[in-house]
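quick q for whoever's on today - can somebody do inverse folding on this one?? i tried earlier but teh output was garbage lol. tokens:
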């Protein structure tokens, strides 16, 4: 929320008592609106209204500085820098958490809890483990008075001024009868979205980016100048309690969090009360599935024996409670060293610097290579050979180098030098002005790497779909100079194939049969298979539909190409240039001569297309159809598949574990189909008879 101009409303004739009352009212109103906005995510007034009230309060405070209230939201913006952080001794130490990683660790935890309680069943509160910073908030008579970092658990640092800038943290608890003292414990973090925005700002300002949301949150909290913290959007979730005076301790952890919600404190909604190890694991797996869609980073989940008297019975060992366990996901970030920076040549000649790394176990796999994307990226992150770097592997995405660790840079760390010649074919590497990507100028004819890439692409499932012709076989075919172009695939015989490693007669015959079968294809697949830059699958489909036959496409001018739906100048030029090259035209002719064919001018088969003109979003796992199969089905029925839900979406087809897209569809009131309903949309004969295949 921002502040707007407003005419002063302080009236000189008011008594101090009146003014104080006015201020109290404004503070209370503003704090309630802030709670609705930042904690409940449900604004109660328009921003402009809020700003008006805010200005009124600011003006009153400026006129009567002695009356400024301790919970006024005007003080959130940060004040003069501190010389240093003061030390704070926690009233009750902040304990640490024991970690578990395997199902066995969880079973052992559950068993020890039951032994300790002499019970057959155990009830747990399960919640998220935020990857942020643990903090203690002290409220006295309902007013926020101090915030301290966890520090070593016994003593932390006073970060009150910084914490005050976090809009989600109430400056006064919502209670007519608040406790005399309440220590709220929880985690300060930065949402993924706010992290991305902050890094964008850092980039724009030519300043160092943060490696991850946790570092960004830590860096923001450790600012001596709270005005800087105020510009960084931080969030907070409460999960624990320290000193409590003047109120009764809730009987369970879940009741504590419910009470916090009533007091206006932010509590994460992703929590549950579950029974026994099975319940814990079910929670863990559910959250693990949804982790990528969560708006914040978590590094696991936390289990706590729910009843407080049971927690007390169990007690703690060496500063970690026996009643709690953090169940961690495999680490997504690890440190390792850069052994070498090499370049890889892609299908279109793109030169990608790749860091060769000392092997490191991250995100559940051993990583030895990580992409550095392009030369600018290497410079921006200043990654050098010999550096210690943070490597990240989230979900199934390819591992990447996030940042180097400056303190660990050796004296002899070497800067990366972009080669001027292709490491595969020695052709010149060219980086067109204004483009981020450098390319090998050899093309598929001269460059083995591009040749391999072109062949793999040609044979891939969505192109000519030659089963068995994968990366390894292509590698051997190219390395041994057996073939150089896709057209030569059709000249392969048994003899040429069986000389290769690991190629028995049976599998060689299978590959040959698949090559033969691939001759019968469709025009869109053929166009896509050529691997023209910028002409992906949907462009290939649009081109086939527009031109109807290959010769028309091959002879099209750039102006004609621009007539095709979704084809812009870059794509049109790329297609035009491709067919202007005689070598490419020759290869197309060779393919046709080899017998590759399709039905030209393919008309839609007779029948009703039930999804004609409809936009469909697929989400979650369908019971039998793969993502590709579902997409093909939609397209055959005349529909278009889109990746995101909007008002223009006609249907959302949802399977199990559907996440935010399903929610969005429900919000927007979009019809939701299951797989069976999707299957029923397959083309029906136009005879009037409902003949669903
Ligand atoms: O989300 C967290 N990082 C988290 C940390 C959590 N959800 N619960 C926690 N509970 C505790 C106890 C059980 C000791 C009150 C914690 C932490 N401790 C914790 N955070 C940092 C050190 C300990």
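ok took a stab at it. sequence:
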């Amino acid at each position: 929320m921002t502040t707007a101009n407003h005419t002063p409303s302080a009236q000189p004739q008011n008594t101090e008592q009146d003014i104080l009352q006015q201020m109290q009212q404004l503070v209370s109103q503003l704090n309630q609106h802030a709670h609705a906005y930042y904690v409940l995510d449900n604004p109660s007034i328009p921003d402009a209204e809020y700003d008006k009230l805010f200005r009124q309060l600011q003006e009153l405070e400026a006129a009567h500085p002695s009356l400024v209230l301790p919970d006024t939201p005007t003080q959130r913006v940060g004040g003069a820098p501190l010389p240093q952080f003061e030390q704070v001794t926690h009233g009750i130490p902040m304990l640490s958490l024991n970690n578990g990683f395997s199902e066995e660790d969880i079973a052992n935890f559950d068993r020890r809890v039951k032994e300790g309680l002499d019970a057959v069943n155990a009830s747990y509160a399960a919640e998220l483990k935020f990857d942020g910073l643990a903090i203690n908030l002290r409220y006295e008579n309902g007013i926020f008075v101090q915030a301290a970092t966890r520090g070593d658990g016994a003593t932390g640092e006073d970060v009150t001024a910084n914490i005050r800038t976090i809009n989600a943290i109430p400056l006064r608890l919502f209670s007519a009868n608040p406790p005399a003292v309440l220590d709220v414990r929880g985690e300060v973090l930065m949402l993924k979205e706010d992290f991305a925005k902050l890094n964008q700002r850092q980039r724009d300002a030519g300043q160092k980016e943060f490696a991850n949301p946790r570092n960004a949150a830590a860096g923001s909290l450790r600012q001596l100048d709270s005005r800087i913290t105020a510009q960084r959007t931080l969030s907070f979730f409460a999960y624990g309690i320290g000193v409590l005076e003047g109120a009764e301790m809730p009987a369970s952890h879940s009741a504590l969090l419910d009470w916090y919600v009533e007091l206006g404190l932010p509590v994460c909604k992703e929590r549950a009360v579950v029974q026994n190890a099975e319940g814990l694991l079910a929670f863990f797996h559910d959250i693990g599935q949804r982790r990528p869609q969560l708006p914040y980073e978590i590094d696991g989940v936390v289990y706590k024996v729910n009843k407080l008297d049971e927690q007390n019975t169990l007690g703690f060992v060496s500063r970690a409670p026996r009643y709690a366990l953090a169940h961690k996901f495999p680490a997504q970030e690890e440190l390792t060293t850069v052994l070498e920076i090499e370049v890889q040549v892609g299908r279109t000649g793109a030169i990608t610097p790749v860091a060769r790394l000392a092997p490191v176990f991250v995100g559940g796999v051993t990583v030895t290579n990580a992409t550095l994307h392009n030369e600018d990226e290497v410079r921006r992150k200043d990654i050098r050979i010999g550096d210690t770097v943070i490597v990240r592997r989230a979900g199934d995405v390819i591992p990447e180098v996030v940042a180097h660790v400056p303190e660990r840079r050796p004296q002899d760390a070497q800067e990366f030098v972009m080669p001027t010649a292709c490491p595969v074919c020695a052709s010149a590497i060219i980086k067109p002005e204004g483009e981020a990507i450098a390319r090998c100028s050899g093309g598929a004819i001269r460059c083995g790497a591009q040749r391999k890439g072109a062949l793999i692409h040609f044979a891939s499932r969505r192109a000519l779909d030659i089963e068995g012709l994968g990366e390894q076989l292509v590698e051997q075919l190219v390395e041994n100079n057996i073939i150089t172009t896709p057209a030569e695939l059709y000249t392969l015989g048994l003899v040429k194939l069986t000389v290769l490693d690991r190629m028995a007669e049976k599998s060689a015959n299978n590959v040959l049969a698949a090559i033969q079968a691939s001759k019968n294809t469709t025009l869109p697949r053929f166009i896509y298979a050529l691997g023209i830059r910028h002409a992906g699958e949907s462009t290939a489909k649009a081109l086939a539909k527009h031109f109807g036959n290959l010769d028309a496409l091959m002879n099209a001018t750039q102006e004609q190409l621009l007539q095709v739906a979704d084809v812009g100048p870059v794509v049109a030029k790329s297609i035009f240039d491709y067919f202007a090259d005689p070598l490419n035209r020759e290869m197309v002719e060779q393919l046709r001569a080899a017998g590759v064919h399709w039905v030209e001018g393919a008309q839609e088969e007779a029948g009703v297309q039930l999804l004609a003109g409809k936009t469909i979003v697929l989400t979650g796992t369908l019971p039998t159809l793969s993502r590709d199969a579902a997409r093909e089905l939609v397209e055959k029925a005349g529909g278009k598949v889109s990746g995101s839900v909007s008002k223009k979406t006609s249907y959302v087809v949802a399977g199990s574990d559907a996440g935010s897209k399903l929610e969005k569809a429900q919000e927007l009131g979009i019809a939701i189909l299951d797989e069976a309903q999707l299957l029923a949309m397959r083309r029906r004969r136009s005879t009037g008879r409902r003949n669903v295949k």
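fwiw The pocket of D41 is lined by residues 95-97, 127-130, 134, 150, 187, 239-240, 302, 304, 321, 324 (CB under 6 Å). also DSSP finds 25 helices and 24 strands in the chain. so keep that in mind when u check it
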